[in-house]
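Weekly sync, protein design subgroup
Attendees: M.S., D.O., the rotation student, P.L. (late)

Item 1: inverse folding check
M.S. brought a backbone from last month's batch and wanted to see whether the design step gives back something sensible before we order anything. D.O. pointed out we never logged the input encoding, so this time it goes straight into the notes. C-alpha cells as presented (263 positions):
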C-alpha cells in the first residue's frame, strides 16, 4: 500500500505555539504529519545553526489523534536537520514552517527563523511553505490567543494541496506566504516580490550612557514599496502575499552592466 505524503511541520515560535497547531490541523487530512519544532521561542534566528541538541518526543494530539512530534532545543533550521536526517522514515513531500506570529516581509526576511527553517528544508530537498499572519510586534514573541490563525490556516491548506499535487513552480524553492489579519477564505492572493525596502526598523533611545536598542517597529511609507512587493500587497492592499523564494542568492547582472562596471 502506498504511504500517505509525509508533511513535516515546524516553526520558530516553539512547539507549543497555537500557530503551529492551526497549521497542523489545516493539513492533517492531506497526509501523515511529523512535527519537529524548537522547544522554546527561536524568533529572528534566521537559518542559524545553534547546536544540534537532542530531539525529545512531545505529546501532541489533534482531533483526538496522536501526532508524532518532537521538541528540539535548537534553531528552526537545525530542527529540519533532525526531521530529515534522523526522524523521517521517507523524504517529506512538503514542509510547512509556521504559522508565524507576525508578517515576514521586506528586505529583512532572512532574519526570520520561519524563513530559515523553510530554506533549510529546501536545501535538504523538499518543497516548503513559510506561513505568517500579520500581527503587531507586541505579539511576536507570545503565544497569545488574541491572534486569529483561521485565515492563514485556510491558505496553508490551499497551497499545501497545490504543492503536493503539482510541486512548486519551476525554479522556486520556498513560497513565503503572508496573510493579512482578519483574512477570509475569499481574500485575494497575489504573486509578489520581496521588497528591497526595510519594513522593520530598530528602535533606539538616548540614555545617560549613550544609545541603546529598545526593540523594533514597523514603518510604512507608500512611496518606498514597489507596486508588486510583498509589503504593498499584505499591508496596503490587504491581500495574501505569495513570494517565490530561491536558495540561489546570485544577483542577475546583465552582460551590459558587467561591461559597464568593468570599464
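Designed sequence read out in the meeting:
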Amino acid at each position: 500500500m502506498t504511504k500517505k505524503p509525509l508533511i513535516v511541520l515546524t516553526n520558530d515560535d516553539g512547539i507549543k505555539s497555537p500557530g503551529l497547531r492551526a497549521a497542523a490541523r489545516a493539513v492533517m487530512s492531506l497526509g501523515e504529519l511529523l512535527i519537529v519544532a524548537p522547544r522554546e521561542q527561536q524568533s529572528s534566528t534566521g537559518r542559524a545553526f545553534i547546536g544540534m541538541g537532542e530531539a525529545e518526543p512531545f505529546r501532541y494530539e489533534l482531533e483526538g489523534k496522536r501526532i508524532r512530534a518532537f521538541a528540539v532545543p535548537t534553531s528552526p533550521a537545525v530542527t529540519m536537520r533532525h526531521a530529515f536526517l534522523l526522524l523521517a522514515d521517507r523524504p517529506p513531500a512538503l514542509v510547512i514552517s509556521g504559522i508565524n506570529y507576525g508578517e515576514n516581509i521586506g528586505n529583512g526576511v532572512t532574519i526570520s527563523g520561519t524563513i530559515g527553517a523553510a530554506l533549510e528544508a529546501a536545501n535538504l530537498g523538499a518543497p516548503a511553505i513559510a506561513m505568517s499572519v500579520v500581527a503587531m510586534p507586541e505579539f511576536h514573541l507570545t503565544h497569545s490567543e488574541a491572534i486569529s490563525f483561521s485565515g492563514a490556516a485556510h491558505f496553508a491548506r490551499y497551497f499545501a494541496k497545490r504543492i503536493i499535487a503539482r510541486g512548486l513552480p519551476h525554479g522556486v524553492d520556498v513560497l513565503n506566504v503572508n496573510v493579512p489579519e482578519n483574512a477570509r477564505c475569499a481574500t485575494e492572493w497575489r504573486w509578489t516580490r520581496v521588497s528591497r525596502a526595510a519594513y522593520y526598523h530598530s528602535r533606539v533611545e538616548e540614555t545617560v550612557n549613550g544609545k541603546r536598542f529598545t526593540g523594533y517597529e514597523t514603518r510604512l511609507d507608500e512611496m518606498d514599496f514597489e507596486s508588486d512587493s510583498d509589503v504593498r500587497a499584505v499591508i496596503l492592499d490587504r491581500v495574501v502575499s505569495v513570494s517565490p523564494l530561491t536558495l540561489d542568492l546570485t544577483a542577475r547582472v546583465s552582460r551590459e552592466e558587467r561591461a559597464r562596471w568593468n570599464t
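Discussion: The first helix runs from residue 18 to 27. Helices lie at 18-27, 76-87, 113-123, 150-166, 230-236, 255-262.
Action: P.L. to compare against the previous round before Friday.
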